[in-house]
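Task card 7
Instruction: Convert sequence to structure tokens.
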Amino acid sequence: MTDRAAGGMRGGAKGPSELRDQIERTRGELGDTVAELVSKADVKGRAMARAADLRDKAGAMTVQLRSSAAQAGHVVQDRATRAGHVVQDRAARAGHVVQDRATQAGHTVQDRATHAGHSVEHSVPRPVRTVVQAGVRHPRPVLVVGAAVAALIAAGMVRRRRDG
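Output:
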């Protein structure tokens, strides 16, 4: 290289050791540039990182949904239990006829709820499907609500007949 050519490059090298230093710096900068280009060109790696982020977010959302569903389930179960006690007291006063009708209606509601649960199970997103499956596996709250509704209907029918 002539002094003019060397002078055009960052002030030029004044000796062999300075030229080696410039070459090493240039190599380092070139290596950094290549590393940046490789990371930008690594579409698969970036996609995998994005997918991992989305999986983490989905996991967090699943935990939140499960927690909300469990909390809602407890509230519904408490309300159903309280309603069941009220209905049970009224049914005892109304007699065996009302109790038999409530039991039949409860079974009908359970059968329909099970059928609806199966239908819903195949047409809803997985988190909702999980809640429906839990209702199918533990039908007692569904039976209590069904019996409560049936008892209220039966009690209304008894009143209508009595009142005329």
